[in-house]
């Protein structure tokens, strides 16, 4: 599954509107995508969207309202312009992990098992490998 297939599959689902709105906004702001990752999209942890560009990483953070049990506006877009200093890919059984360290010492950690659910774990593993190859 390539990056576009992964992205399309996620956003065809009926999830909170704020996710789709943020995704559309990012696509309007940036055009040089190399990869996309939706952390915690299918589990009960706070969702974050990551966009990998030619010269940076863009992270979208959302506000979760525990009373309403949903995400709401506003959302925050943060762009990290530091170059990737190190990337480590680890395979463990059916689990794939990717650690990215930027020049400014920011570290991003992606894990196919922790960031998804059992149904999506294989798709997440494929997506992580795809990101590793293109960045």
UniProtKB/TrEMBL annotation:
This is DUF3908 domain-containing protein. It comes from Ureibacillus terrenus.
């Amino acid at each position: 599954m390539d990056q576009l297939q992964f992205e399309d599959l996620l956003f065809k689902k009926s999830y909170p509107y704020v996710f789709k709105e943020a995704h559309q906004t990012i696509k309007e702001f940036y055009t040089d995508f190399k990869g996309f990752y939706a952390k915690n999209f299918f589990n009960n942890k706070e969702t974050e969207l990551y966009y990998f560009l030619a010269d940076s990483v863009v992270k979208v953070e959302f506000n979760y309202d525990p009373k309403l049990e949903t995400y709401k506006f506003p959302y925050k877009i943060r762009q990290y312009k530091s170059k990737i200093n190190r990337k480590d890919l680890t395979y463990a059984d059916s689990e794939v992990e990717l650690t990215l360290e930027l020049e400014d010492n920011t570290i991003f950690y992606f894990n196919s098992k922790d960031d998804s659910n059992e149904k999506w774990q294989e798709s997440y593993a494929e997506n992580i490998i795809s990101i590793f190859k293109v960045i």
